[in-house]
Amino acid sequence: xxxxxxxxxxxxxxxxxxxxxxxxxxxxxxxxxxxxxxxxxxxxxxxxxxxxxxxxxxxxxxxxxxxxxxxxxxxxxxxxxxxxxxxxxxxxxxxxxxxxxxxxxxxxxxxxxxxxxxxxxxxxxxxxxxxxxxxxxxxxxxxxxxxxxxxxxxxxxxxxxxxxxxxxxxxxxxxxxxxxxxxxxxxxxxxxxxxxxxxxxxxxxxxxxxxxxxxxxxxxxxxxxxxxxxxxxxxxxxxxxxxxxxxxxxxxxxxxxxxxxxxxxxxxxxxxxxxxxxxxxxxxxxxxxxxxxxxxxxxxxxxxxxxxxxxxxxxxxxxxxxxxxxxxxxxxxxxxxxxxxxxxxxxxxxxxxxxxxxxxxxxxxxxxxxxxxxxxxxxxxxxxxxxxxxxxxxxxxxxxxxxxxxxxxxxxxxxxxxxxxxxxxxxxxxxxxxxxxxxxxxxxxxxxxxxxxxxxxxxxxxxxxxxxxxxxxxxxxxxxxxxxxxxxxxxxxxxxxxxxxxxxxxxxxxxxxxxxxxxxxxxxxxxxxxxxxxxxxxxxxxxxxxxxxxxxxxxxxxxxxxxxxxxxxxxxxxxxxxxxxxxxxxxxxxxxxx
Length: 594
Known about the structure:
With 594 residues, this protein is an all-alpha fold.
């Protein structure tokens, strides 16, 4: 997708102030319309432009320094979302992860994700887009865009709250729907898939869309994602009593359509660099793997300070966890518990030997992904700023190298940084397809070769063979301890591949939720093996605290008993003020007393 920055420039003008999330809630609708609006295709396009700015945010805009409610991570959600999972640890532990979320108490009405301003904008379009004499072929393209965004919005709300109200039209203060109970999840998700199918029908084919606008493939990608999520959520949350097979089948069909559309895994043949390079680009215009991306422009003053603050000073102050690092296979395709190639964990340098090349392209080995000499934060690459050293902390010692953009000019642009943000990429489709086919009982070696093994080929990892699935007693025991079930070996490996390939792309939380594996967050959070010679000024027992095996324990003092999971966390609570305004909503289970 190209030049989305054009969209933002069009948000000014006729809709003065309409780029504000709360605009449609604060002002009467008649302030943004007149008798002459809705009459042309340009009017419809102008209205939709603001929706792009709201839903396709990439690394966000400007300083990009706000947090996303209710999750609490930085608004550049794609690279930062994993900080509330078992993939990463922020300097200050996540209260969401530790069952300490209280946003429904401290936040007001419409907070914590229970926000309907954008939905009102979508429904306002749906109530008015046919008022003018616009060619139906033109009009329906923008209808497809709005239905796509509405499906996406509702999907995000269902992930947060389960049952949510379904609104077909703009509501007024006296509308009966404002005081109705939540719509059951099954009905909402059926409606989501229906309007998403309509969006696919109305949107133009890839290449036929206007520059900077979505096409059928983007909507098919969302359908693949939603189908897998809802299908597996229903299977593993069997207390819902809902069959997810139709959603899994929808995911399969959407994925198959995209797999036949000419996309491929990006590679130049450099197995030691291609994976990392994929996430450090100015443009994805010609990249065969990227289905949707956001472009930034310094010339248009439409950039973001992401590259500077991610690479230079660890603004989010987080590090990867040992649990993630241990999940990477060795280059013989075996887990570290089994492989004779594994050298041990006496140092980060040692444990990175003979491992899946994506490990060193995701996590910084000491001395790698160094900043330009003299640049702010340059001392944070040879050795990470663990506790006891100056600068923003990498609390685990595993500094993330994925998303590192070695472009000092871009760092200097500050809020006009131009590092492009991939939003949808083809590798996810392959992973969705493999998992959905397994869950439907349709997995074959041919499916594995089309998906997992295609992804592995980028880094020259051994192919996965159904007749020779490696054992992993350590991971199996983790499932038994934290999930109360042990997946079949091939599903375990599909899930491992997903975790590795999509690390630090904001998938892990959703995956744990849909697999009913949230209790994995109780696993002790550990960092690198601390080697005193590498950090001579750091004092053990004062600056850092270590496990019995010598691994850094970033939360030893603040969480001496570890993190706590409660099954109520599979859904977030509705703000108390909204329950007061509409007593028919009812709170999600086990949040009533908090």
